[in-house]
């Protein structure tokens, strides 16, 4: 448990640095750092695959996560004084790094709780790492530069992590036409629409949930949110089919299966 907390804390620190640290380093140094982070990102995926294949126990997986988190933190910690001419591509890389870190954080929470809905609510450590002041500064910059697509993507993602779903909807709606190029951001927008109190909504949540689920067919949490929407509209059969597909995806995890089966039971026998 302690190792898990340490790993999450390290990853949250990386997320905060990913948003806060100026992408203002000389091009040559920045490229070296990006290449190193690309390698580390592949190692994250390899760790998850090894655990899924049974090569690593949960404890081993957590320990290696913490170690890799420290390496990621070291990669982001070197100072650099100069502003490069082209920050857009760098900003996109930072967004991808932040997305990777958030996925690891939420995936870890998913594993700990077996709750697909809670997995989509980022842990307090991630919310603290971003901070309202940081987001406000980004929002102010975008007000002066509304054509910055990567900036709106980062702002929408930040609001999503902070559970400000109304803010996430507003930011993502500005770049909705391009979100199909980034399935993870599309999923965040769809879920934010499902949870937002904004009326009228700029887009219907249901089609975006369906699109995101097609692009991310192995994302069981998306299927659960889609099933919730179907149940709310009386589409019990379709909802159960989505939940059964989600259960099949998570059959190796009894906690997740138990949660999904409780939803299936509720759908079949509503109280």
UniProtKB/TrEMBL annotation:
SUPFAM superfamilies: TPR-like. Residues 138-249 form the Cytochrome c-type biogenesis protein H TPR domain. Keywords: Cytochrome c-type biogenesis, Repeat, TPR repeat. InterPro entries: C-type_cytochrome_biogenesis, Cyt_c_biogenesis_CcmI, TPR-like_helical_dom_sf, TPR_CcmH_CycH. The keyword Repeat applies. It comes from the Bacteria. It is found in: Cell envelope. One of its GO terms (biological process) is cytochrome complex assembly. Pfam families: TPR_CcmH_CycH. The keyword DNA-binding does not apply. One of its GO terms (cellular component) is cell envelope. This is C-type cytochrome biogenesis protein CcmI. It comes from Laribacter hongkongensis.
């Amino acid at each position: 448990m302690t190792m898990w907390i340490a790993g999450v804390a390290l990853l949250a620190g990386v997320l905060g640095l990913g948003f806060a640290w100026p992408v203002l380093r000389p091009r040559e140094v920045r490229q070296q750092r990006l290449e190193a982070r690309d390698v580390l990102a592949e190692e994250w995926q390899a760790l998850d695959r090894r655990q899924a294949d049974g090569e690593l126990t949960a404890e081993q997986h957590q320990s290696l996560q913490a170690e890799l988190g420290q390496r990621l933190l070291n990669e982001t910690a070197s100072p650099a004084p100069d502003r490069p001419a082209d920050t857009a591509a760098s900003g996109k890389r930072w967004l991808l790094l932040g997305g990777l870190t958030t996925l690891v954080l939420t995936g870890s929470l998913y594993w700990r709780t077996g709750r697909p809905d809670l997995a989509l609510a980022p842990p307090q450590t991630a919310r603290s790492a971003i901070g309202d002041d940081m987001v406000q500064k980004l929002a102010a910059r975008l007000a002066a530069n509304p054509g910055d697509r990567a900036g709106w993507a980062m702002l929408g993602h930040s609001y999503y992590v902070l559970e400000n779903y109304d803010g996430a909807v507003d930011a993502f709606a500005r770049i909705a036409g391009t979100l199909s190029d980034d399935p993870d951001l599309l999923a965040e927008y769809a879920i934010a629409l499902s949870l937002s109190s904004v009326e009228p909504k700029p887009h219907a949540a249901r089609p975006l949930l369906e699109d995101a689920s097609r692009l991310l067919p192995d994302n069981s949490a998306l299927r659960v949110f889609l099933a919730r929407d179907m149940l709310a509209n009386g589409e019990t059969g379709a909802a159960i089919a989505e939940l059964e597909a989600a259960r099949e995806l998570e059959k190796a995890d009894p906690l997740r299966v138990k949660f999904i089966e409780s939803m299936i039971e509720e759908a079949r026998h509503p109280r």
